[in-house]
Amino acid sequence: MSAVPCTGGGKVTVPEILSRKSSSPVGSTAKSKITCLTAYDYPTARLLDEAGVDILLVGDSLAMVVLGYDSTLPVTLDEVLMHVRAVRRGTRRALLVADMPYGSYHISLEESVRNAVRLVKEGGAEAVKVEGGERRIELIARLVEAEIPVMGHVGLTPQSVNAMGGFHVQGKTNDAARQVERDARAVEAAGAFAVVLESMPRELAARITEKLHIPTIGIGAGPDCDGQVLVFHDLVGLTIGHTPKFARKYADLGADISRAASEYCDDVRSGRFPSDAESYHSPAELREHLPARQRT
Ligand code: KIV
């Protein structure tokens, strides 16, 4: 049985996530791992929330898995905001984190804080996520000062796809590993309450997890992180095209949807749908005036 964490009313909060750090002295010794999934709409948020997922992330992966772009770069703050509102309506227990999309925190600190405030005030997000390590120190500190909890994100940062020359595993040389570690420490020092470690050797993620005092949430970073995150569409088999090797598929909804849609087409074309039981009927007194073949 999984251990579902409980705060007042079972709501997952930022302090509660911090207390789940594997080495944190708060509470019992065995800490249950933090679970996080992306969500982009109301029904999915409800289902994931009711299933006990701790953190729902409205990720900018929205751009790729929902909107069909080939990177996360095009999605706008207004688009993310619309999805955050939908997820907010479906979320009661989980902590709701909104990704700051590319361009929404790259111009000036003032504009970045204003954009993050919109995600909280208009969207109902309880925290925001920003990509990048050392170069986000000032930004993270300013957001925290504005009462906005921040989740960091280091290693493979998909918004850097052009600078990185593709989506590649990070931290594979000594120098690169040291940089990822510096980035994670910088994010913590700036005041983030958790950090996503994406696509890096498990040994590096384990070392960072051991050294940090905030929880690490891994994706393609091995099993030793304090929690795990996956993209919902990868989890349930709705991603079109390539999925990375760490993206375990727990369901094949893509195949189910294709089968359901083609069965529906067959049934409509052959007259098997809708049936009489799936039809509304006129009251008996009116039926008498109908042609015989419509009276049944
Ligand atoms: O946008 C996203 O889905 C993410 C997760 C992969 C962490 O940033």
Quick structural overview:
The chain is of the alpha/beta class and 296 residues long. It has helices at 14-18, 42-50, 62-65, 77-90, 109-121, 137-145, 161-164, 174-190, 202-211, 232-235, 253-270, 284-287; strands spanning 34-38, 55-58, 95-99, 127-129, 150-155, 194-198, 216-219, 227-230.
Structure, described:
It is a single chain. The chain is α/β, with parallel strands linked by helices and about 300 residues long. About 40% of the residues lie in helices and about 10% in strands. The chain is built from twelve helices and eight strands. The protein has an eight-stranded parallel barrel with strand order 1-2-3-4-5-6-7-8, surrounded by six helices. 3-methyl-2-oxobutanoic acid binds near residues 61, 153 and 219.
Record the SSE blueprint:
Blueprint (H helix, E strand, L loop, with lengths): L13 H5 L15 E5 L3 H9 L4 E4 L3 H4 L11 H14 L4 E5 L9 H13 L5 E3 L7 H9 L4 E6 L5 H4 L9 H17 L3 E5 L3 H10 L4 E4 L7 E4 L1 H4 L17 H18 L13 H4 L9
Parallel strand pairs: 1-2, 1-8, 2-3, 3-4, 4-5, 5-6, 6-7, 7-8
Helix pairs in contact: 2-4, 5-6, 6-8, 8-9
Bound molecules: 3-methyl-2-oxobutanoic acid.
Spell out which ligands are present: 3-methyl-2-oxobutanoic acid
Beta-strand fraction estimate: 5-15%
Number of helices: 12
Unreliable segments of 5+ consecutive residues: 1-8
Straight-line N-to-C gap: 53 Å
The overall average pLDDT, rounded, is 94
Task: Please summarize the sheet with the most strands.
Answer: 8 strands, parallel, barrel
Structural class: alpha/beta
Shape: elongated
Radius of gyration: 23 Å
With strands numbered from the N-terminus, the spatial order across the biggest sheet is: 1-2-3-4-5-6-7-8
Number of strands: 8
SSE pattern, N- to C-terminal: HEHEHHEHEHEHHEHEEHHH
Helix content: 25-40%
